[in-house]
UniProtKB/TrEMBL annotation:
This is Methylmalonyl-CoA carboxyltransferase. InterPro entries: AccD/PCCB (IPR051047), AcCoA_carboxyl_beta (IPR034733), ClpP/crotonase-like_dom_sf (IPR029045), COA_CT_C (IPR011763), COA_CT_N (IPR011762). Residues 3-268 form the CoA carboxyltransferase N-terminal domain. It comes from the Bacteria. One of its GO terms (molecular function) is propionyl-CoA carboxylase activity. Gene3D superfamilies: 2-enoyl-CoA Hydratase, Chain A, domain 1. Signal peptide: none annotated. PROSITE patterns: COA_CT_CTER, COA_CT_NTER. Residues 273-514 form the CoA carboxyltransferase C-terminal domain.
């Protein structure tokens, strides 16, 4: 006797599940400019590699004969697959089934996806649309009760949502309206992406917020500009295909989990490559800014720079890159914004990025140009100094190899935060570097007020004092006291950074760190 009838019934149920919310709901998804969850998973993974888990989980409707008459699949699709040949876990919300809300959720599915990632030590990609399995007011009626947030069993999803950050790479793709638990799952990632025209993210959407007397559209409340500038989301792209490409590229810099080391790729870019423009890229006019990104692009392997969080904390640039094929985490000051001063947002950005490097064993390269913490009333209202010392703690607590190149400014308490204080790190300075407790500009008038006021020509006296002090602040004088180890020809920088990456590779150690990364 064959079990063929049961296999045919299994195939029928699988076909029902693959139909998702039905043709009308699928059509509506496409008309909104969005792919279905199954199309997204197929585009995210290497072709033909998706192994679905729990495909026929859902709610069946049975006729008088006891046979299945109708089927509503769970609005969570999950399983395993490959990204660039590397195994990952992937879990996605099906918005065609009850808008991704709790009414159609089997909560064990997203929990199992998170557990699978943790216990098999695999990266997890969350494709999020709707509430991500979160609650709805209607849930009270459909279940006959109100759910206590978390509750028995539910706490596991919240546990893994945060705990996986210290174990495996976590990527979130917000590809529609994302609210509530879905917003939490998108924010609790190492890298998050939104689509500009078709996605939004909020704790509660416009219907709830506008009931309180507001009149906001989705974009005004939680569009990509709001969320990338607030730091809640890392990246925004035009299309879903670009979101998948960004996720693949981000994962390429990281190991599969914290018990592995980042993968070195073949590299044809000469480690000794130089560029004459580096000799003059820093203006002699201290008040004149310059563009840092071309310097980063030039120093790193060609085509390897991948910026993260461009629109948040903009006086600091954070990106992943490679040196002789080895992944590194790059911090850099951006003098185009606040002259490179560290704002509260910039400090928060540094904390999160250093934690990412520490979690996944990425050596840090810091191209420094920081005149200090941002000052003024707004800076005090934003508790900039508290965020600044948090950044200091993150740098000092890190254990990954660290290399700093001081390009121009290093002043004040923020200037201290350019290398770990308790261990050896490699440090270089360009001839354009300058440092001190505070910049001479503005400080001279305070320190020499009496002498300037007593002079016959106060402006001439100010200029005389400034010229005298500028001579004394030469980095060459600092090098006499061995307070800076090496002042280098800028044209040597790439060679020295590639050497650093090779030395760092020898001492990197995989494994869990003393503290887990927080979102």
């Amino acid at each position: 006797m064959s079990w063929q009838p049961e296999l045919e019934e299994l195939a029928r149920r699988q076909a029902m599940a693959e139909a998702m919310g039905g043709p009308d709901k699928v059509r509506r998804q496409h008309e909104g400019g969005r792919l279905t969850v199954r199309e997204r998973i197929g585009a995210m993974l290497d072709p033909g590699t998706f192994h679905e888990v729990g495909a026929i989980a859902g709610k069946g409707e049975y006729g008088p004969d006891g046979r299945l008459a109708g089927f509503t699949p769970s609005n969570c699709v999950m399983g395993r697959g490959l990204v660039d040949g590397r195994p990952v876990v992937i879990v996605g919300d099906d918005f065609t089934v009850r808008g991704g809300s709790a009414d159609a959720t089997i909560r064990e599915k997203p929990i199992m996806a998170e557990r699978m990632a943790a216990d098999l030590r695999l990266p997890i990609i969350r494709i999020i649309e709707g509430s991500g399995g979160g609650g709805s007011v209607k849930t009270i009626e459909t279940t006959g009760r109100a759910n206590l947030p978390g509750g028995v069993g539910g706490t596991w999803l919240y546990h893994h949502t945060g705990d996986n950050l210290s174990r495996v790479p976590v990527v979130g793709l917000g590809l529609g309206s994302v609210a509530g638990l879905g917003a939490a799952r998108l924010a609790a990632t190492h890298f998050s992406v939104m689509t500009k025209e078709t996605s939004a993210m909020f704790v509660a959407g416009p219907p709830v917020v506008n009931a309180l007397g507001n009149n906001l559209s989705k974009a005004e409340l939680g569009g990509w500009e709001i969320q990338t500038r607030s730091g809640a989301v890392d990246h925004a792209v035009e299309t879903e295909e670009e979101a998948f490409a960004a996720a693949r590229r981000f994962l390429s810099y990281l190991p599969g989990n914290v018990w592995e080391l980042p993968q070195r790729l073949p590299c044809k870019d000469d480690p000794n490559r130089s560029d004459e423009s580096w000799l003059s890229v820093i203006p002699r006019d201290l008040r004149k800014p310059y563009r840092m990104r071309p310097i980063i692009e030039g120093l790193m392997d060609r085509g390897s720079v991948f910026e993260v969080g461009r629109y948040f904390g903009r006086s600091v640039i954070t990106c992943l890159a490679r040196l002789s094929g080895r992944p590194v985490a790059v911090l850099a000051g951006d003098p185009m914004f606040y002259a490179g001063s560290w704002t509260a947002d910039a400090c928060a950005k540094v904390v999160r990025f250093v934690d990412l490097a520490e979690t996944f064993h990425l050596p840090v390269v810091y191209l420094m140009d920081c005149p200090g913490f941002m000052i003024g009333l707004e800076a005090e209202q934003r508790a900039t100094i508290r965020w600044g010392v948090r950044a200091m703690a993150a740098v000092n607590q890190s254990t990954v190899p660290w290399c700093t190149v001081i390009l121009r400014n290093a002043f004040g308490v923020a200037g201290v935060v350019h290398q770990p204080a308790s261990r050896y790190s490699v440090r270089y300075a360009w001839p354009s570097a300058r440092w001190g407790s505070l910049p001479l500009e503005g400080g001279i008038e305070a320190a020499y007020r009496a002498e300037i006021d007593a002079a016959e020509d106060p402006q001439a006296k100010l200029a005389e004092i400034e010229a005298r002090l500028q001579q004394l602040r030469s980095p060459l004088r600092t090098a006499e006291a061995f307070w800076v180890e090496e002042i280098i020809d800028p044209r040597q920088t790439r060679r020295l950074l590639c050497e650093f990456a090779g030395l760092a590779e020898r001492v990197l150690e995989p494994g869990l760190r003393a503290h887990g990364m927080r979102p």
